[in-house]
Each structure stands twice: as structure tokens, then as C-alpha cells.
Amino acid sequence: MTENNAQSEAGLASDLNNELDSGIAIDNKREILAELAHAQWSGWMEYLFSKGVVNEDGTWTMPLWAVERWQRQMKTSYNELSFDEKESDRKEADKFLAVLCI
């Protein structure tokens, strides 16, 4: 994820936290959390695509190191991740906690 995207997500979490504090309806809270989820997904996709190569025909190729790393991570339970991998997930969870005021 780029630094700008991380800053954007942090700002979004802060803005959303303020909106949630204002006592809005649960449907609106759901939309606010969905907006944050989308920002996190969008940031991941930006990062992912930055690691591969766009081919002449418009397709995209993921490098072998990324295939191996991300396949290993997706097949690994959270409890078995490395400390750094857990920290990365915790940072993402913190964004939701900030929105939920926990």
C-alpha cells in the first residue's frame, strides 16, 4: 500500500469515527464501515498491481515471489503467521476499531 493510501485510510477512519460518534442510524454505520472496507481493499489492490507487470495484451502477471508468499499466507491461520504478518493485520484491524470507537 502506498503512503498516500495509508494516510487516506487513516483520515477516512478518523472522519468515519466522528460520524459514528454523532449517533447516526445503524444502516449508516454499516455504510461507513463498508466504505472503510472498500478503502482497505482498494489499497491492497493498488499494492498488488504495483508488484506485477501489465502485459501488452492488457493482462497482468504476478511475479513468482508474490504467488509463493501470498499463497503461503492465505493458507496459514492467523495464529501461525509471523509477528510482522500479524502486525500488518493488526494495523488493518485498528482502522475498524477506530471507527467503532473501541
Describe, in plain words, how this protein is organized in 3D.
- The chain has helices at 3-21, 26-51, 64-74, 83-100, and strands spanning 53-54, 60-61.
- With 102 residues, the protein is mostly helical.
- The chain has one domain (3-100).
- Strands 1-2 form a two-stranded antiparallel sheet.
- The protein is globular.
- It starts with a helix and ends with a helix.
- The model has no long low-confidence stretch (mean pLDDT 85).
Number of DSSP-assigned strands: 2
Strand order of the largest sheet: 1-2
Radius of gyration: 16 Å
Mean pLDDT across the residues is 85
Percent of residues in helices comes to: over 70%
**Model regions low in confidence, pLDDT < 50 over at least 5 residues:** none
Percentage of residues in DSSP E strands:
under 5%
Largest beta-sheet characterization: 2 strands, antiparallel
* End-to-end CA span: 25 Å
Structural class: mainly alpha
Run of helices and strands: HHEEHH
Shape: globular
Tally of helical segments: 4
Number of domains: 1
Short description:
The protein has 4 helices and 2 strands. It has helices at residues 3-21, 26-51, 64-74, 83-100, and strands at 53-54, 60-61. It has a two-stranded antiparallel sheet.
